[in-house]
From TrEMBL:
Gene3D superfamilies xrefs: 1.10.40.70
Organism domain of life: Bacteria
InterPro entries the record matches: T2SS_E_N_sf (IPR037257), T2SS_GspE_N (IPR007831)
Keyword Coiled coil among UniProt keywords: yes
Protein's name according to its UniProt entry: Type II secretion system protein GspE N-terminal domain-containing protein
Length: 306
């Protein structure tokens, strides 16, 4: 009987512990919900403050035409730090504060570039937007580059932009998924947009000889294709930041230059540089985990049976 009572007491204690933990979990959930609501409220207040600031800017420019002319002149001559694209267009009087706010909401909802959204919503024409981009020294729109190069027709670009509006994501990825461009064509356009060199060729043995430790290569998503005492050239599918270039330079102990590669080109480089390592690791893993099926054991059994 005493054993039964001890077990019953233990069960009772466990039940009390479960009830206590459940209460604590509910309290934590309430706190997390309260914190989420507080942050949402703070974010909403910040958004409203930004929108109010845009409206004040618009009103001030309308009330003082001379100031607006001065701002336009400074923007065209780049005497002042260049603002973000939406604010740039607002200061130039090409869009209204309401149009900018609507476009930013749409960008938050569906993603993509603000310039493309402004065009899609009909707030600014492509030609006018491209003119501003050219004058401000900003990167040209990827869609426009692909149209200008003849890789994409205007109607197909519009179709891709419509899909991007509902699905979100980057325009280049959308064009690839619709089979309107090849990975190489996208890489060409991105290289032009970013003022970067494209991968044009490499020596297979040099890629194998100069490769980074795989962990570092995966961190930067980059493959060394050429290295000498004074320079290291790496290929990557996306533009590396200045910080990443600096870190890579410390690893290879020389200045680093990047060339842009397509996704298919990077797959070939990964295989070329690391396939032998992958095979060796796979063989070692098989030998350790399944020694009876490893190549060495299979060969030994074959010789013994012979």
């Amino acid at each position: 009987m005493s054993l039964f009572r001890r077990k019953a007491d233990q069960i009772g204690q466990l039940q009390e512990a479960i009830v206590t933990k459940a209460r604590q979990i509910r309290q934590l959930k309430r706190r997390a919900l309260d914190e989420t609501q507080r942050l949402d409220q703070h974010l909403q207040e910040l958004q409203e403050a930004i929108e109010a600031a845009y409206l004040r800017i618009e009103q001030a420019l309308h009330q003082d035409p001379q100031k607006q002319m001065l701002i336009k002149e400074q923007l065209h001559t780049r005497m002042d730090p260049c603002p973000r694209m939406g604010e740039h267009l607002l200061l130039l009087g090409m869009i209204t504060a309401r149009q900018l706010m609507n476009s930013l909401r749409e960008q938050k909802r569906s993603g993509g570039k603000l310039g493309e959204i402004l065009v899609r919503l009909g707030y600014v024409g492509r030609d006018r937007l491209q003119s501003v981009i050219d004058q401000s020294g900003r990167r040209p729109l990827i869609g426009e580059l692909l149209v200008q190069s003849g890789h994409v027709k205007r109607k197909d670009l519009d179709r891709a932009l419509t899909r991007q509006e509902s699905a979100g994501g980057m325009l280049g990825d959308m064009l690839l998924s619709m089979n309107l461009i090849s990975p190489a064509q996208l890489a060409d356009a991105l290289a032009v947009q970013g003022h970067m060199k494209r991968l044009t060729g490499y020596d297979r043995q040099e890629v194998i000889r100069s490769k980074l430790p795989e962990k570092a290569a995966r961190k930067f998503k980059a493959i060394v294709i050429r290295q000498s005492a004074g320079q290291c050239v790496v290929a990557a599918e996306n533009a590396l930041s200045a910080t990443q270039i600096h870190e890579l330079g410390r690893i290879v102990a020389s200045p680093v230059t990047q060339v842009l590669a397509s996704s298919q080109e990077m797959e070939r480089l990964w295989t070329l540089a690391y396939a032998s390592d992958w095979l060796r690791e796979s063989t070692e893993k098989l030998r350790t985990e399944q020694p009876e099926n490893s190549a060495s054991q299979t060969f030994s059994r074959y010789r013994s049976s012979g």
